[in-house]
Amino acid sequence: MKSVQGDEQARTRPPYPEPVDIERKAQWTKSAFDQYGVWQLVTTIPAVLTQVFKMAWRIDRRDVLVMVGAQVVYGIGSAVALAATARAMVPVLGSGSVSHRVHQALPALVVIAVAAGVGRVAYGLASWSVGRLKPRLMTAADVAVVEAMLRVELSAFLRPEFSEEHEAAETGSVRCDRLIYDVQSFMSALIKLVAAFGVLTALHPLMLPVLVLAVLPSGVGAMAEARIEHQVHTANSTGRNVRGMMRWHVTAGKLADEVRGMSMAGYLSYWYRTLSKRLDDRTLSGAGRQLRANLVAAVFGGLCLSLAWGTLLWLTVSGRMSLAIAATAVLAVRTALGNLTNVVHYAASLFHSSLFLGDWKQFIERSQALMPAAGTVPAPREPETIQVRDAVFTYPNKDRPAVDGVSLTLRRGELVAVLGENGSGKSTLTRLMTGLYTPDKGQVLWDGADVSRIDVNEVWEQTGFVTQQFGYWPVSARDNITMGQPVTLDDDRVWEAVDAVGMRGAFEELPRGLDTLLATELWGGVSMSGGQWQRIACARVLYRRPAVVVMDEPTSDMDPRGEHAMFRLLREIAPGRITVVVTHRLINTKVADRIIVMDKGRIAEHGTFDQLVKGGGLFQELYELSLDRGGRGL
Ligand SMILES: Nc1ncnc2c1ncn2[C@@H]1O[C@H](COP(=O)(O)OP(=O)(O)OP(=O)(O)O)[C@@H](O)[C@H]1O
Ligand SMILES: [Mg+2]
C-alpha cells in the first residue's frame, strides 16, 4: 500500500491503518447468475420483456403502442426490402442488355426504396417513443425505491443486508435507462432476423441451422461476459456502499470544518484511494476473465462462421444453388448474421440488465413485507395512558438487551423525564413507547390497546418526536416547521411555533423570509447554528400540537436561555398531553412530575426530583457529579 500512502508520509510516521475489508456472508455474495444455468437465462428473457412492458404500459400506453407498432413496421420494411432484393437479383445477374435487366428489376428496386424509407421513419418513431419512456421509467423505478425506504418499518434499517439490498435496487433503477434501449434494440434485431431467416429458408433450408450454429458461440461468450460483470458488481457491493457513505461524509460541507480542523484530509484521501483501488482490483480481475471468455467465443465463432460460408460455397459449386440465388443468399446471410449477433448481444444485455432489475424488483417486493402491519385494533385518540409492560428489546447484532424488562405507565397531563448514562437505553425506550420498535418480549399499550396491533401510522399521527439525531431538512424555513402537516393560508401558526422556541429574530433576518431555503448548499440558501436547528426541531413538534410529545435531548445544543424557555414551555403544554423528555442536564428534571432513571436497560430508580436527589442512588451520584467541577484535575 506504500504507493497509495505516499513516500513522504510513510517516512515520517507509521502507516495509516487500512480501511476494514468487510467480509460479506456467502449468501449475499451470490449473484443471480450463480443460481441459474444458461438455459434458464435464455428463458427469463420473455419474463423480463413482459415486466418492462408492464412498467412502461403503466407510464404511457401511447408511447408503448408507438414503440411496438413502429418496431413492427420497421421489421416488415426490412423483410420486404430483403425479399425484393432477392427478386431484383435474378434479372440483375441474368442475361440480356443492362437497360433491359435494370428495367426488369425496376419494380423490385422501387419496393426496396419505399420499404427502406418507411423502415427509417418507423425506426425514428420507435426511438422517439423510447426516448420519451426512458426518463419516466427511471423515475418510476427510483420513486418506488424512495417510497419503499420511507415506509418500511424502522427495524428494517437494523438488518445488516438492508442497505446492500437498497444499493442493488438503486443500481436496478439506474439500469432502467439501458433496459428500455436494450428492449428496443432486441426487438428490432429479432424482427429483422426473422425476416432474413424467412428469406434464407426460402432460398435453401440448410442455411438456417448452419447460421444459428455460426452465431451461437458469440452468444455464449456474451452471456459469460455479463455473468462475470454481475458477479464482480455483487462482490463489490459492500465496499461500494461503504465508499459511498464515506464520500458523502468527505464531500459534505457540514463536516468540512472537522476534516480541516482535525487534519483528517491525508488519512481520508488515503482511505478513499485504498478502498477505490480494492474495488478496481476486483473489477480488473473480472476483466481478465471476460477477455478469456471472449477469446474462446471468438475462436469457436470463427470456426462456425467458416462452416457457414463453406456450406454456401459447396451449394453453389455443386450446382445445388444458382449464382443469382447464391448472391441473394450472401446478402441474406450477412443480414441474418448481423442481426443474429445483435439478437444474442441484446438478449445478453437484456438479461444482464434484468439481473439488476431483478434486484430492484426483489427489494420492492421484500420491502412490502417490511411494511408495518395494517393493524387490527383501532388507535385510541388522544390517549390517557401509555403503558410499557416488561418490555425487552435487543438490537439484532447485540447480545445484551438495550431495554431489559422495563415497566412504566405514562399518564396524560404528566411530564416525565428520563435520564441515565450513555447507552443505558433511553432512546430505545422512547422508540418502544411510540411504536417505532416492537418489543421482543412484553407489550406497549396505548389506552390498553397493544401498539403492535394498531396501525402505527395512526399512532405516529398523534406523536411529536424530537429525535436525538434530527434532520437538517434542505427545504424552506416554513416547510422545516410544517413538514407535511396541514398548512393554513396565513403563517400565523408557523410564527406561533417559531415564537415558542425563540426563533422569531433569526427567522425575520432570513433573506426571503419563510421561503428561504435552509441549506447553504442550495442557491440562495442559508444555514442555522446547531442550537438554532434544535429549536427548529422543537418548533416542528409544537406546530403539530400532538397528543404525545417525546423529546430526546431536545436542548443539548441550546444556550441556557433557550433551554430554560424550552422546559418552561414543556411544563406549560404538559396538561393536555403525555410528555416525555430525555435529558442529561439533571437540573432540567426539576420541572418533571416524575423522573425515570435508566441503568443498563433497566429502570434503576424513579420518583420526583426532591426524592431522588437525596435518594442515595444513581440520580444523586450523577447530580453531585454534575455540580462537581472542583478543579482537582483528572
Ligand atoms: N442501531 C443500533 N444497533 C445496535 N445497537 C444499538 C443501536 N442503537 C443503540 N444501540 C445500543 O443499545 C444500547 C442503548 O442505546 P440507546 O441509544 O437507547 O442509549 P441512550 O441511553 O439513548 O444513550 P445516549 O445517552 O448516548 O443517547 C446501547 O448499548 C447502544 O450501543
Ligand atoms: Mg439516546
Automatic annotation (TrEMBL):
Keywords: ATP-binding, Membrane, Nucleotide-binding, Transmembrane, Transmembrane helix. SUPFAM superfamilies: ABC transporter transmembrane region, P-loop containing nucleoside triphosphate hydrolases. This is ABC transporter ATP-binding protein. The keyword Ion transport does not apply. It is a multi-pass membrane protein. Its main location: membrane. Residues 386-625 form the ABC transporter domain. InterPro entries: AAA+_ATPase (IPR003593), ABC1_TM_sf (IPR036640), ABC_transporter-like_ATP-bd (IPR003439), P-loop_NTPase (IPR027417), Type_1_exporter (IPR039421). Pfam families: ABC_tran. One of its GO terms (molecular function) is ATP binding. It comes from Streptomyces klenkii. GO terms for cellular component: plasma membrane. The keyword Transmembrane applies. The chain crosses the membrane at residues 64-85, 105-126, 193-216, 295-315. It is found in: Cell membrane. Residues 1-20 are annotated as: Disordered.
